User: What shape does this take?
Amino acid sequence: MKKAIASIAFGLLTAGLITTGASAQATLGSVKQKGYLTCGSNTGLAGFGLPDAQGNWTGLDVEFCRAIAAAIFDDPTKVRFIPLAAKDRFTALQSGEVDVLSRNSTVTMSRDTQLGLDFPAVNYYDGQGFMVRKKLGVSSAKELNGASICTQQGTTTELNLADYFRANNMKYEVVAFATSDETFKAYDAGRCDAFTTDASGLYAERLRASNPDDHIVLPEIISKEPLGPAVRHGDNQWADIVRWTFNAMLDAEELGVTKANVDQMKSSDNPEIKRLLGTEGKFGEAIGLTNDWAVRIIKHIGNYGESFERNVGEGSKLKIKRGQNALWTKGGLQYGLPIR
Amino acid sequence: MTTAVDMRHYVRSDKIEASPPPTLSRGPLAWMRENLFSSPLNALLTLAVLYLLYVIIPPVVRFLFLDAVWTGTDRAACREDMVGHPVGACWAFVVEKINFFTYGSYPAPERWRVNIFFLLLAIGVGWLLWLRAPRRDLGAVYFFWVFPIASYILLTGGNADFGLGFWIKFAVVGLVLIGLLAGAASLLGTSIRTALIAAAAIVAAVGVTLAFIDWDFGLLPVPTSLWGGILVTLLVATVGIVFSLPFGILLALGRRSKLPILRLASVIFIEFVRGVPLITVLIMANTMLPLFLPPDTGVDRLVRPLVGTAIFASAYMAEVVRGGLQAMPKGQYEGAMSLGLNYPQMMVFIILPQALRIVIPGIVNTFIGLFKDTSLVSVVGIFDLIRAIESSRIDPNWAAPTISYTGYAFAALFYFIFCWGMSRYSIGVERRLAAGQTR
Assistant: This one.
């Protein structure tokens, strides 16, 4: 996630203006009373939050909001999406305009501690990567010594790039452009050897190249961009709902519970599955929902893996590999906290 | 002494066939020599312009028409590497997305309501702008009263559900208002009956309006967060245009008024609003305003930029109108007063008709500027046409090198058609109103 310095300054300013924020202690109550969840979404990011030709919102972040709605109302359509630009997103959350912000926002300490926000989960581990032409014969970013690299001006991407090359004692030539469109166009036209932006963005941009198959994404990730949903600080019950909605999706994947088999799985003897699906224990009631909350999520949305594949993975046009977002059992970072 | 010459032999009885003029003073060659190559400098400029046209036009035509892709269902149709020949504009993309560009996320089964809104808008605009249309007074009533109510009910679903308490309050306020007007009339010694009728008419009009909004027509409610595309663009532009002219005139009159407080208030309003960029007003309205309001009492997210653009356009309009008012010679004011007209009569019958005619180009200029400024609402996350195109062009299903250009070409075409239409209409009105001034 690229964060313009100005947007942070703006966020800090507004955080200073409001002392307590709209400390709606009972977000769950107000959501139930309204009858729908308001979700701050991206104004348009392929695979994460994007309206389709019929105007329906799709994407990984969007489905996470639908999962929360499914857990509360047993109806994933009871969400209103408010598209938010990068500079508006945190104020919209602070002011109570949205109940949850699911908009590929990087979790950082300053955002967590100074903006009055909480980040209950990380639903996508992103990071800056490189794309090069296949015919360059490069298979690692370490081999990019002396390369010219196209990047967008004034972003953290440019700074990360400088750090990485200095740390590895390599030379490079930066070719910077004002917009991401221009940057990619220049790379596609052969102005530079490599193109760099967040890895999720690399796959989306590659589709726009004149010959997508001529380009590969290098395996190195040179920055940490953990993206996750945000809620207002101070409403712990609401943060719990968001946190455990995500963990339920992860646990379901780990335990092999899918959209298709969730009903059979209810009769499973595995105690972990029993606790997840609410046939044992009262975990749903503990967060203010019904005990079949996880069943609702999985039945309407599916587990994390299904959502990932459908929106950004092999089932989508983007074809992003699971990589860091694979389950911990498969060498990734996604680790579903135990429900017990 | 006479010369014995027989005149009949000298004077031709039939006319000589006129010989054609020299080729260099008539015909296309002469026209070119006179208009294009009259001097070395002009010849040079002509050649430069011709060269520029040669450089620009063929590629544009090739991109927009000859190489364009007209049909297709996804990106494969618009990619050079898949279709095997150069690909220009991908109109198939616009065709596929046209519903999203028009309605945004408005629920598909309810889109007939938006279509009726477009139709009602077209009828209203046509009725008011077509100078020979029948009953244009009714047209004004339609456009400024019936049409807004109908649009509100159609687009949102109506059924505001005020409740009984609201109607009791309304009845009390209405009766008090009627009583006050009647009292004022009796104090001033004017006809109480007229005052009663006027007050009752106002209360009835407001009451009917509110009753329609309150009534449940059985339409599915559609929150404004789902509105988008051309619908929002036209809505913002219409509200801005409809509100800016009357408010602008009032502000201009206020600024020229002799009443000090009124004048000061108008000056402060105009200068303050003109002094800040529109984008600041919009960000203030959509980002900052909710911070100061208690939660759950926020004004709708679409209404805020609507009010912002209307206020903004009014301030600009006020200065345009003031220009017209100041161009009026003092004699016009004095003539009106010498006829015994009071201030409203003088303004409505003498000054404003002349002043507004002078500033028609300025007014239309402001309208066109406003129409294009509506695209700024996309910055605060409202899905107008520009935002809809922005989010469609990154759709992975349509990822191809020319998609962005196609989207922007469509936007340019849309804005050009509307702005050019406004401009042509204003030229027509100017000609008609200037009939008495032609020399």
Summary: Chain A has two domains: 5-125+225-330, 128-217.
